[in-house]
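User: For a benchmark we're assembling, each entry needs the component sequences followed by a predicted structure for the full assembly. Here are entry 17's components. Please fill in the structure.
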Amino acid sequence: MTMQLTHFSAAVLFALFASVVFGITQRSDTREMVRYGVYCFAMFVGGVIVAGWVMWILRR
Amino acid sequence: MANSTTEKTKAVEPPKAEAQPLTTMSVMAPAIAWLIPGAGHLIQKRWGRGILLLVSIVAMFLIGLASQGRIYKPNGGDILDILGFVGDIGAGGLYIVTRAMDWGQGAIAHATADYGTKFLIVAGLLNFIAVADAYHIAIGKKP
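Assistant: Structure for entry 17:
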């Protein structure tokens, strides 16, 4: 089986899995784990969007 | 006089870190966690965390394989190849099965296949973090 992800879907999946692991391993309390996981996910995806716009501006 | 000097010396000394007792769990948990992602948490009855780690790391590894990512072999050549191998080996049992089945050997044919290679490496690196976390739970450093 082969799969071909788009650039954005690859970035979102990467962010999701990495955030779950970061959240669980970097915090001790369950509530803090969820908060940190969501924070990491937002930073990953936000970073992708910001980087995308920066590259679009630089290209013009 | 001598006593006050000794007391001063004692006061300046930094507190020594307490040596953690070597228990069966503190050895077994990291080893099993490396072999099967999330299993180090599962054997310590952290069911939710263990299942989430298992699903995340295994899914990331499988997506990497399905995207035709490349698996690195042990090598003494290019530094990037060595680092790629170090990342891949973190996936433990997944890496062993993949090598045994001779998967992940295809030439990179499209741009997203390179993402697949990165997914495989990062899955291994995330498993290293999960191994360290399982050890911290085993020695009582983390609840």
